[in-house]
Write a structure and sequence with these properties.
The complex is a heterotrimer of chains A (752), B (151) and C (448). With 752 residues, chain A is an alpha+beta fold. Helix content of chain A is 28%, strand content 21%. Chain B folds into two domains: 73 residues, Beta-grasp domain (Ubiquitin-like (UB roll), Roll); 74 residues, [2Fe-2S]-binding domain (DNA polymerase, domain 1, Orthogonal Bundle), CATH 1.10.150.120. Classes of the chains: A alpha+beta (752), B alpha+beta (151), C mainly alpha (448). Chains in contact: A-B, A-C, B-C. The complex binds FE2/S2 (inorganic) cluster (2 copies).
């Protein structure tokens, strides 16, 4: 029998803010269990950081010791500039670096790198995990890094064995003396190698892609076994000695602050409660156990009062805000807006057209709904530094924000970025939407490390939303039914202007992407935005603007095709004939689906079905999807989705396939059922009960084809989503004869 | 309160209505079992109680006193669980992985109850949510296990 | 309790000619011409307790409003009415009420200015309250409650249905107009219980069937219909008599006590409208009073003709949920995927924390409303002693279609020995269209 309650004396060993030396660099996985005492990497400073940071200006992605530690057992520890959240980036980084280093990706242990100038590898100036940018923006840099490291190992071997460099070569994990056949493991040379000057990465010779062994191959992911056995550590799992737990209750609306707490004394006396705290827009309870903290935080009876203006960009949610009314407000906007893309003269093209088509489309607010609720663990150390573990997609941004808030230097703040239990855009810096400021304040106030977890209910109350839009389309067709003009005016607010502020002189390109950037040969086009500020906090969401704009455009495209008497697939083919890449892609998805057939037709099981097609050009890649649907008891069922994706060139086809399937799932979920509804300024859904997300029995069979056109490498995480929505909407329209012009479909009533 | 988890007996200091999930995670420090919703909606917190898949976020500890609780930490000690994990690796099922402890638990419990489940059995049993949309892969892995038998 | 009754208006409006005297007559009060003297702290405290017994706060306070300032909307088929400010504010509240005015409002449904209160105010029950309790309550409202200046909202019921004088007639016909009279044949505990149940506790408002004019068909145990279970506002308030299936027949007095004290016992957890009664009223009652209530209720005989064969647990049906037959029993699969994680494959729930579905009134009563409603909308938070419940029933309206819900409820109402009638898709659809999900907020209505 084990008694696992920490005795008070044990806890006293770790008083307020003491440095906890032995445990600094490990996770304590609680006090017991199968993994007791396990040492989990990813903590503390990267090996070689001190060396890496000596000297002047850093060129990101060049200083090998900041990234790599080759251990005596020949495993390679890699500091990934990107955070792993299921998109497989750790494995991709191991493939890329391993390919050039000449080390099997299997031998890699990958972690998220701490904040620091070395890791700003996106265009050598920034670092986020998002925008489907990781691999495509760092591919060359990370290859060069691997090649530099290999070069250093070779040099170290040349010195050690006193042989000319030319006589040495490598095979996976070893330096080989080609004349003697003698092999030395990298692990033996690493110590010497890492002290050598890093070769100039510009001059470094890279592998001939035709000889790649891992890049381009379906290499197994490195994190699978850990994730199948519960060993992967997410923020919510982090623990340090002396840690206490916290839970919050947020004000029902943003912009409210804490007034009186009516039952503070009673709640202080509740089981396990240590202290009660007032935070901006929230109250918190610190307790020995999270469950006790959560029950107590919920029990607090707070009089919420209007919060003082603090000059921040926090939005104040009015108490009469309703999403239904706001959608109408968007629809009632008039005017031409500000153009984001303009070609020819759309006005006269449409007024001279043989046929004109007009339609209004609407989208909805949606939640991220990542399965891991947000959390943060903060610890002030005796040496004045601060450690924070938290889900984040941008360590440096979080670091500098914490510096501003605490008055510490950025260098005193250690940002840890554990695995993300899904992200989809959730974990950027959003005012009032990240738990870490609360955790930091609480750790300061209680003088002990504090882990704060937001319950799902608190998360859905503060989750910033994917923007909503209402788009008014006008299209003109010539006498042959071919589109000659297309205008789209979107009343919306883009996520970037939503977060950082609107600039009246420009438009947020993310508000319009997916309406803009279309490659159909339509001579006259105008895509514009009417800026309408949203009271709710906005966010990036998987595929960002594309997550709704391709739905609008590609569904309206089918309206044009039908009005003009053209098959929508054929019309796309025709309008893309001068674009070889896209024609190929469209043909590929058609082939994958067994040849384009629109329907409606009777399926083997006797159900009436139809198919629809949609395309998108998101995040540097191209994607096209065909969906097959039927109706059951008034609900849309999506049976199959065929998707072809052309990311130019690829690193791991298995990961790409998995990412496309994942994107399809989120797309199907959004169009079938997702909608964040606000009434009286508050979200009506606070958990998955009233905000359902796609269930297993609603998941279509997804078939993926990767087309490698050889074009510049594009993104992977997001491009799979956008074409799925219009493919489904178009299929439903074909099947039911009823136009789909809004999401989600669960709001629509179909006659058939 | 005494709880038997993965063949160890623990003396736990918590109220009887405390959810098993939080005792496992906080009191006992086993973090493989995940919190997703706390409302029996997602299945991330699935464990086995006497071999039956159980959502630990809605299981008060006093209701499972004396029963045999298995968490993901011990999954590979179970021959069926071990096979499930192998198939999960073979099919490269997880993405973010957050739901996967629960998915593996649900699959293991299903196969322990029915050695060769039908398609219907699988659909009825594999109801946990996955926001990353690994449903196709889960389905393929379980189908594989169902056809090959789990032991 | 809150939203009902108002159909009464339509019923009563007609045919009320020649009744001017009744309609305009101000009933007399034993406190006429009595000037209340400055109350003692004791009297105020007693009054506060009586306010708990009567659950005044539930209707006269909104979740984010000041205590007793009114303003709670009560939807009725004729339009909304709003509860009134009963704080001692002289302009907008009842600060100018004399003890006699107060008495008339409480026990006769007549406001100080002579207008008739809607019978959403349970004066047909309150009229049984003792003079002493009225006095104490008055002392509490005058001296123990903060005056709040908050004007009453006008009702939204349109002319001519907003005429209030016909209510006087209703009043004459359907109230007894007499303080509770102890029964010499029963002991003190029984009489105390009867007083609490019939008087301030106004249990019959929900649990006694209503007649054609929305009147409670019985106001005490002299009728077998008293507390025999009723449909109200989308919920079935079960029998509080000794019926083994739909009532308290299988509960001991201690079980009844525990239910009212803690909100739960091994037979069930308060849900639906009962949550408010528990959160704001019953848990604050003294142990003696709760035992008296239990004692009185357990004295009310069952009606075997109506209640039917006595439920007994049937283990065999639990096998429906073992997986290989799950898809062969309609609804069983839905149950397994959505309900079994909490209520158990065996339908027995989890100790007293999560209620059983086996053998409970909502699964056995001919009226399926409560079962449907709680499945569609979940249940409000149960807050015992200031601590919110660890487990709440979530709404399933977004997850299950009418057909699926009908099927799973039909299953649950026939499993484990349950013998409730099947639930139809139409019944689910009807309730879905005019109900909303329960709030998940932890609502504690403050009295001070
Ligand atoms: S956390 Fe238990 S079901 Fe979601
Ligand atoms: S793998 Fe991310 S939620 Fe399932």
């Amino acid at each position: 029998m084990k008694n696992l309650k920490l005795s008070p004396s044990q806890q006293d060993q770790f008083p307020t803010g003491e440095p906890v030396n032995i445990s600094r660099r490990r996770f304590l996985l609680g006090a017991a269990g199968a993994t007791t005492g396990a040492l989990v990497l990813g903590f503390g400073l990267p090996v070689g950081k001190a060396r890496a940071q000596s000297g002047g200006e850093v060129t990101p992605g060049t200083r090998v010791p900041a990234f790599l530690e080759i251990r005596p057992d020949n495993t390679v520890r890699l500091q990934s500039p990107f955070v792993e959240g299921g998109q497989g980036v750790f494995t991709a980084m191991a493939q890329i670096v391993g390919e050039e280093l000449d080390a099997d990706p299997k031998s890699f242990v990958v972690e998220s790198a701490p904040a620091g100038p070395d890791y700003l590898v996106i265009n050598n100036q920034m670092r986020i995990t998002g925008g489907s940018m990781s691999v495509r923006t760092s591919y060359d840099t990370m290859r060069k890094l691997g090649a530099s490291a290999r070069n250093m190992l070779l040099q170290a071997a040349a010195i050690r064995f006193d042989v000319p460099l030319a006589q040495l070569t490598t095979e996976p994990g070893y330096v080989v003396n080609s004349s003697t056949g003698q092999k030395v493991p990298f692990g033996d040379l690493a110590e010497d190698a890492l002290d050598l000057p890093v070769p100039d990465s510009e001059g470094i010779k890279l592998r001939d892609p035709s000889t790649f062994r891992w890049i381009g191959k379906p290499v197994d992911r490195l994190d699978i076994h850990d994730k199948a056995t519960g060993k992967a550590i997410f923020s919510i799992d982090c623990a340090v000695e002396g840690m206490v737990h916290a839970a919050v209750q947020h004000a029902p609306r943003l912009g409210l602050g804490v007034g009186n707490i009516l039952n503070e004394t009673d709640v202080s006396a509740m089981k396990g409660v240590m202290s009660i705290h007032r935070l901006p827009g929230a109250v918190a309870v610190v307790a020995e156990r999270w469950w006790n903290a959560k029950v107590a935080a919920e029990a607090l009876q707070v009089e919420w009062v209007k919060r003082d203006e603090d000059g921040s960009n926090i939005r104040h949610m009015p108490d009469d805000f309703s999403t239904v009314a706001f959608s109408d407000h968007l629809a009632n906007q008039t005017g031409n807006g500000k153009a984001g893309e303009e070609e020819g003269d759309v006005g006269s093209a449409i007024s001279n057209a043989a046929t004109t088509v007009e339609a209004t489309y609407r989208s909805q607010f949606v939640h991220h709904g990542q399965l891991e609720p947000p959390s943060a663990l903060a610890r002030f150390n005796d040496d004045g530094t601060l450690d924070v573990w938290m889900p984040n997609q941008a360590p440096e941004q979080f670091q500098s924000q914490i510096a501003g808030m605490t008055g510490l230097e950025a260098s005193q703040i250690n940002v840890h970025s554990p695995m993300l239990g899904g992200f989809f855009g959730r974990h950027f810096l959003y005012p009032e939407a990240n738990p870490y400021p609360q955790a930091v304040q609480l750790a300061k106030e209680v003088g002990r490390p504090v882990k704060l977890i937001w319950s799902r209910e608190e998360e859905f109350l503060r989750d910033p939303l994917r923007p909503m839009a209402v788009v008014k389309f006008r299209g003109g067709l010539d006498a042959d039914g071919m589109p000659v003009g297309l205008e789209a005016i979107s009343a919306t607010e883009g996520p970037t202007e939503g977060i950082y502020g609107h600039n009246p002189d420009s438009i947020d390109p993310l508000a319009l992407e997916g309406l803009t950037g279309k490659k159909y040969a339509i001579a006259n086009r105008r895509i514009a935005q009417i800026y309408v500020k949203t009271p709710a906090m906005l966010a990036y969401w998987r595929s960002v603007g594309h997550s709704m704009n391709d739905f609008f455009y590609e569904t309206f495209f089918d309206e044009l095709a039908d009005q003009g008497g053209h098959d929508p697939y054929e019309l796309r083919m025709q309008l893309l004939q001068s674009d070889e890449r896209l024609s190929n892609l469209l043909r590929a998805v058609g082939d994958l689906s067994g040849g384009w057939k629109r329907g409606p037709f009777t399926a083997e099981d006797g159900s009436q079905r139809a198919r629809g097609v949609g395309m998108a050009s998101p995040f540097g890649s191209e994607s096209a999807a065909i969906a097959e649907v039927s109706m059951q008891n008034g609900d849309v069922v999506v049976h199959d989705v065929w998707e072809a994706i052309d990311p130019g060139s690829i690193v791991n086809p298995a990961i790409i396939e998995a990412q496309v399937k994942s994107a399809v799932a989120l797309g199907v979920s959004q169009i079938l059922m997702e909608e964040a509804i606000y009434e009286n300024g508050e979200p009506t859904a606070r958990n998955y009960d009233l905000y359902p997300i796609l269930r297993p029995d609603q998941m279509p069979n997804v078939h993926v084809r990767i087309v490698e056109s050889g074009a510049k490498m594009g993104g992977i995480g997001e491009p799979g989503l956008p074409p799925v929505l219009p493919a489904i909407a178009n299929a439903v329209s074909t099947l039911t004869g009823q136009r789909v012009r809004s999401m989600p479909l669960s709001n629509l009533r179909f006659e058939s | 309160m005494k709880l038997t988890i993965n063949n160890e007996t623990y003396d736990v200091d918590a109220d009887g209505d405390t959810p098993l999930l939080w005792v496992i995670r906080d009191n006992l420090g086993m973090t493989g079992t995940k919190y997703g919703c706390g409302l029996a909606q997602c299945g991330a917190c699935s464990v086995m109680v006497d071999g039956v898949v159980t959502r630990s976020c809605v299981t008060p500890i006093d209701a499972v006193e004396g029963q045999e609780i298995t968490t993901i930490e011990a999954i590979e000690n179970d021959p069926v669980g071990k096979r499930v994990v192998e198939k999960w690796v073979e099919h490269q099922v997880p993405q973010c992985g957050y739901c996967q402890s629960g998915q593996v638990m649900a699959a293991t419990a299903l196969l322990k109850e029915i050695e060769n489940p039908t398609e219907d059995d699988v659909e009825a049993a594999m109801v946990n949510l996955c926001r990353c949309g690994t449903y196709n892969a889960i389905h393929a892995a379980v189908k594989d296990l169902a056809e090959g038998g789990a032991s | 309790m809150k939203k009902l009754f108002l159909t009464v208006l339509g019923v009563v409006v007609v045919g009320a000619a020649g009744t001017a005297w009744i309609a305009t007559h101000t009933p007399s009060s034993p406190f006429d011409n009595v000037t209340a003297s400055a109350p003692s702290e004791d009297l105020i405290a007693r009054g506060e307790y009586v306010a708990r017994l009567g659950d005044c706060v539930a209707c006269h306070t909104t979740p984010d409003g000041k205590a007793f300032a009114g303003g709670l909307e009560m939807g009725t088929p004729l339009g909304s009415i709003f509860t009134t400010n009963i704080t001692p504010d002289p302009e907008t509240g009842i600060g100018n009420y004399s003890l006699a005015d107060f008495d008339r409002a409480l026990r006769h449904g007549v406001a100080a200015d002579g207008h008739r209160l809607y019978p959403a105010m349970p004066y047909p029950s309150y009229d049984k309250m003792t003079d002493g309790d009225i006095e104490a309550l008055y002392a509490y409202f005058m001296e123990g409650v903060e005056p709040v200046s908050q004007a009453n909202k006008p009702t939204e019921i349109e002319e001519p249905l907003n005429m209030r004088w016909p209510l006087a007639l209703w009043n004459v016909v359907f109230t007894e107009g007499e303080v509770y009279q102890a029964k010499a044949s029963e002991d003190g505990m029984w009489n105390r219980g009867a007083y609490l149940v019939q008087g301030p506790g106004h249990c019959g408002s929900c649990h006694t069937p209503r007649g054609p004019a929305m009147n409670e068909v019985a106001l005490d145990e002299s009728s077998p219909e008293y507390l025999s279970g009723a449909l109200l506002d989308g919920w079935y308030a079960p029998s509080l008599r000794n019926d083994p299936n739909i009532g308290l027949g299988r509960w001991s007095e201690e079980d009844v006590y525990a239910y009212l004290k803690n909100g739960r016992n091994e037979h069930g957890v308060v849900f639906g409208s009962m949550v408010e009664a528990f959160n704001n009223s019953t848990q604050f009652m003294s142990d003696d009073d709760l035992m008296s209530i239990a004692h009185y209720l357990k004295s009310l005989p069952a009606d075997p003709d109506y209640d039917g064969p006595v439920w007994a647990y049937d283990e065999a049906t639990a096998d429906d949920l073992s997986r290989d037959v799950a898809d062969k029993v309609p609804g069983a699969r839905t149950y397994a995927a959505n309900c079994a994680f909490c209520h158990g494959r065996d339908g027995l729930g989890q100790n007293e924390w999560i209620p059983p579905l086996a053998g409970v009134s909502s699964m056995l009563a001919p009226e399926a409303e409560s079962a449907i409603n709680v499945t569609l909308n979940g249940s409000p938070r149960v807050i015992a002693n200031g601590v919110p419940d660890s487990y709440r029933m979530p709404p399933y309206r977004e997850h299950l279609s009418d057909a699926q819900m009908a099927e799973v409820l039909t299953y649950a109402r026939s499993a484990w020995g349950n013998h409730g009638d099947a639930v139809s898709e139409e019944e689910v659809a009807a309730l879905r269209s005019h109900t909303d999900p329960a709030s998940i907020d932890v609502i504690i209505l403050q009295m001070r």
